[in-house]
Design goal:
2 helices; about 55% helix; rod-shaped
């Protein structure tokens, strides 16, 4: 009961062919290939174009800039 050799896989393949027949196995593999192709097509359609995601004219905000008219400070009056 050591490792699995190539002959073990050959015997398993022959048994699968006898049980399902050559037509069923190739039909099954064709269905798997169609599923993979449709999955790849669906993933390609979901990706939005890179140019549409970015705005045409980005606005720059400078947090360190001084305002033109700063609010006047309240003057303290003593009564």
């Amino acid at each position: 009961m050591g490792g699995v050799s190539i002959w073990h896989w050959v015997v398993v393949g022959v048994i699968v062919m006898l049980l399902f027949g050559r037509g069923k196995v190739s039909e099954l593999m064709g269905d798997v290939a169609k599923g993979i192709k449709s999955f790849k097509k669906g993933m390609a359609e979901d990706d939005p174009p890179e140019t549409a995601a970015q705005p045409a004219d980005p606005k720059v905000i400078d947090h360190n800039a001084q305002t033109a008219n700063p609010a006047p400070a309240k003057a303290e009056t003593k009564a």
